[in-house]
Design a protein that fits this description.
The complex is a heterodimer of chains A (150) and B (279). Helix content of chain A is 15%, strand content 35%. Chain A is α+β, with helices and mostly antiparallel strands and 150 residues long. Chain A has a domain of 103 residues: OB fold (Dihydrolipoamide Acetyltransferase, E2P) (Beta Barrel), CATH 2.40.50.140. Chain A has a 5-stranded mixed β-barrel. Chain A is globular, with a radius of gyration of 17 Å. With 279 residues, chain B is of the alpha+beta class. Chain B has a single domain, classed as Lipocalin, CATH 2.40.128.20. Chain B contains 5 helices and 9 strands, in the order ααβααββββββββα. In chain B, strands 4-3-2-1-9-8-7-6-5 form a 9-stranded antiparallel β-sheet, with no helix packed on it. In chain B, a hairpin with a 3-residue loop joins β2 and β3. The chains are: A alpha+beta (150), B alpha+beta (279). Chains A and B meet through α1, α2, α3 and β6 of A and α3, α4 and α5 of B.
């Protein structure tokens, strides 16, 4: 559990940090296990062109054409919150992100090594940053088991 | 889907304007800062978020946390999930054999989670989620609780007895009563297909849950849960949490079966021998 401190943290950011710490105890419903599907030790940041968005429950997905240094294009799939949570997180369906937009996504790679990832933060074509999915570790039981280990 | 509200919420909401008007007229009779119904009971009606202690709208209370609003740091904060033990709760007092079974699920990162199959999460698991709002509608004779997560609902008759012919269900059978200013809800009649709170927290059909809802001011309900199951626990498991009012939040549609890829993903990984277990 890391909270990043910045040298020039302004009061409103401090308030957010305090609020964030206060909220650490909130049990969040992840529909399924992050840790089973994704590797928290494999963070990934990719920039590409959005090709498709699926606003579906229990999870939404978007697809991204990513070009490597040789110019080869690969299509990546990223998972995130369902539409209801995205709406409350500030996403505007059909407006915030559209096919053809160039965006940057930060997340974690799937354990199966395919071009599949869990998305956390998306930097939209407008420059706005929104969360598309929860932090690493959500839904797989956390760092402490619910019973004593003997 | 944006803007769509559960049909049942619409129906119930449309039936309430007269009650709301009465409630507004009776604001003068509010004792302290706890809103009350015309018959003097604390009024629990509203849309709530569980587990938070922050006042304000959904956006105000969740901004920057990754639950809602925008954030700058994708690595922080690492918020506990419904598969985690709430930080304020004691660890579950399982009997040794049962604790081993819970740990097995934990080691397997909860791939046996019934919710990953889109099955109802049960009580109290559905009630302690922070990511999805809960709507409470209070009437003199019954309390209705609507959960966005998994489209679940509970109808809680007041001063009633559990039916004699209960069939086991995911959400159990709830009856309520007022003890002073606290709504006490007795829940029984569960099947064995849900988890309590946290990864692997299984139970038997002997499960008995007692919930206490106490609205302490305009913004907050103290929510205290006692979980009993003598077949797997050594003593009652008591959890204290709360619900915060989120005025202006509307429940959204949540159709879990729409595009549920998790079970196939788990199956594929196991078939291909991809290691995902905790060390």
């Amino acid at each position: 559990m890391k909270v990043e401190f910045r040298a020039k943290m302004i009061p409103s950011q401090l308030w957010r940090l305090v609020a964030a710490i206060a909220l650490l105890a909130i049990p969040l419903a992840a529909h399924h296990s992050f840790g089973a599907e994704y590797d928290a030790n494999k963070p990934i940041t990719l920039t590409g062109v959005v090709t498709k968005i699926e606003w579906t429950n229990p999870h939404s997905y978007f697809y991204l054409d990513v070009k490597d240094e040789k110019g080869t294009v690969a299509n990546w799939k990223f998972e995130g919150y369902g539409p209801g949570v995205l709406y409350r997180t500030g996403w505007k369906r059909g407006i915030s992100m559209k096919p053809g937009d160039t965006i940057t996504v930060t997340g974690w790679r799937a354990r199966d090594g395919t071009n599949w990832g869990h998305s956390r933060q998306v930097t939209l074509a407008s420059g706005e940053k929104l969360f598309f999915g929860p932090p690493a570790g959500t839904g797989d039981g956390g760092s402490v088991p619910p019973v004593e280990v003997k | 889907m944006m803007g769509r509200v559960l049909a049942v919420v619409v129906a119930l909401t449309l039936s309430l304007p007269a009650q709301n008007a009465t409630r507004d007229k009776n604001k003068a009779s509010t004792k302290g800062s706890v809103p009350r119904t015309p018959d003097g009971k604390p009024d629990l009606t509203g849309v709530w978020q569980s587990g938070s202690t922050v006042k304000g709208s959904w956006e105000e209370a969740n901004s920057g946390t990754g639950i809602g609003g925008t954030g700058k740091n994708p690595s922080a904060p690492a918020i506990l999930s419904a598969s985690d033990r709430p930080a304020a709760a004691e660890r579950a007092p399982y009997q040794p054999w049962a604790a081993q079974k819970v740990l097995e699920s934990y080691k397997n990162r909860g791939i046996d989670d019934p919710a990953a199959e889109c099955l109802p999460p049960g009580v109290p698991r559905t009630s302690v989620l922070g990511l999805f709002p809960t709507q409470i509608i209070e009437t003199p004779k019954q309390i209705v609780i609507l959960y966005e997560y998994m489209h679940e609902y509970r109808i809680i008759p007041l001063n009633a007895k559990h039916p004699d012919d209960l069939s086991p269900t995911y959400m159990g059978d709830s009856v309520g009563r007022w003890e002073g200013d606290t709504l006490v809800v007795d829940v029984t009649g569960f099947n064995e297909k849900t988890w309590l709170v946290g990864t692997g927290t299984f139970h038997t059909d002997a499960l008995h849950v007692t919930e206490r809802y106490t609205r302490v001011d305009k913004d907050q309900i103290n929510y205290d849960i006692t979980i009993e199951d003598p077949n797997v626990l050594t003593k009652p498991w008591v959890i204290h949490t709360n619900l915060m009012l989120r005025d202006g939040t509307r429940l959204q549609e949540y159709v879990c079966a729409e595009n549920n890829l998790a079970p196939a993903f788990y199956e594929r990984m196991q078939k291909n021998g991809i290691n995902f277990q905790r060390p």
